[in-house]
Design goal:
It is built from 11 helices and 14 strands. The chain folds into 2 domains: 10-131, Rossmann fold; 134-283 and 313-323, 2-Layer Sandwich (Dihydrodipicolinate Reductase, domain 2), CATH 3.30.360. A hairpin with a 5-residue loop joins strand 13 (262-267) and strand 14 (273-274). An 8-stranded mixed β-sheet has the order 8-9-10-7-11-12-13-14. The chain has a 6-stranded parallel β-sheet with strand order 3-2-1-4-5-6, sandwiched between helices. Helix 1 (19-33) packs across helix 10 (282-296). The longest helix is centred in the C-terminal third of the chain and has 19 residues, at 305-323. The chain has helices spanning 19-33, 48-51, 65-71, 86-95, 110-123, 137-148, 173-176, 178-182, 185-195, 282-296, 305-323; strands spanning 10-15, 38-44, 60-62, 76-79, 99-103, 127-130, 154-163, 200-206, 216-222, 228-234, 243-251, 254-259, 262-267, 273-274. It has 340 residues and is α/β, with parallel strands linked by helices.
Amino acid sequence: MTNANDNRTLRVGLIGIGSMGGVHLDVYERLAREGYPVELAAICDLKIAELKNDRLAAYALYDSVEAMLRGETLDVVDITVPTPFHAELACSLLEQGYHVLCEKPMARTSEQALRMAEAAAASGRTLMIGQCLRFWPAYEYLKACVADGRYGNVRAGYFFRGSGYPLPWYLNGENSGGCLLDMHVHDTDIVNWLFGLPAKVSTSGRVVAPKGGYDVVSTNYYYPEGMVLNAQADWTLEGDIKFAMTYRVNLEGASIVFANDEVSVHPVGEPGFKAELPEDAGYYREIRYFLDAVASGQPVSVCPPEATLDTMAIIEAEQRSAELGGELVAPRTRTVNAAN
C-alpha cells in the first residue's frame, strides 16, 4: 500500500464478486471509462475458479485475501462479502494500512462495528460503510429539505422497503440478521441521518423463514420533538413485486413523497412538482465520494463510521424491542476509543 494523497491512480482490490460485488465492479469500470484516476487491480473470491469468465479475466484474480495482498500494491480494499466476515476483514486491512470501503450492514453486531470504528481511528486510514441511501438522490433531496428547513419542521414520516424472498443464505437469521439487519438497516440509517439517535424505539417483527431472523419488521421511532416516524421492511412480498422503496414525509409547509423512482413535492398553497434529481444511482455516487475522500485525505463526513455505528445501536434496540413484544427500548450507544 502507498500514500493515496499524491495525485496518482488509486489501486483497488475487490473482495467478493457476488451480487453486490458485481454492482461495485460496474461502478469501477464506469469510473475508469470516464477517466477517473482509479484502477480495479484485483478481485478476490473463494469461488473465483467457478466464477471466472471473460469479463473477470481482465483482472488479477485470487481465491484468498492473503495472496491478493502479497501479489498486489493496493491503496483501497472494497469488501462485499457476507456480513459475518466484515469486522475481521476490515480491522485486519485497516491495521495493515489500507483504506476500506465495506458494504452494509457495518457488521453482525454493534460490538464488532465498534472494533471496526476503533481500528479506523487508530490506523488513520479511511473506513466507510456502504449505506448507499445517504448518496441516493431521492434521499439526498429529503435530507436537504429537512436540514435547511425550507418547509419547516417534520411532523411525520413513513419509510418502506420490500422485495421477494432473497437468496437462501439471507434467510438464515443467525448469519444475516434477517430482514431487520440486512434490508431494514437502510431506512433505519436514513432515520438516523435525518434526525439523529431516537430516544426509544418500538418494533414488531415476524419470522417467516424456518431459520429466519425477523423477515417482516415495523418500527416506530420516538424523539423529544414528537415526530411520528415509522419504517417498515418486508422481504417476503409475493407475486410479481420484485422490489420497492418509498417514503412519505410531512412537514409544516409541504409533503414530500418518493415512489416509482420519483420525488413529488406538495407545498402548502402552491402547485405540487417533481423534484429534479441527478440521474446517477447511489452506488456510483457512494463509491466516487469515498475515492474522492481517500485521494484528498478528507474525512468521509457524509457517512463516517461513528454514524453507522449509531445505526447499528438503533438496529439492536429494534431487535430487543421485537423480542420483548414491542416494548420501548433505548439504543445503547458506544464510544469510539482510538487507543484500542
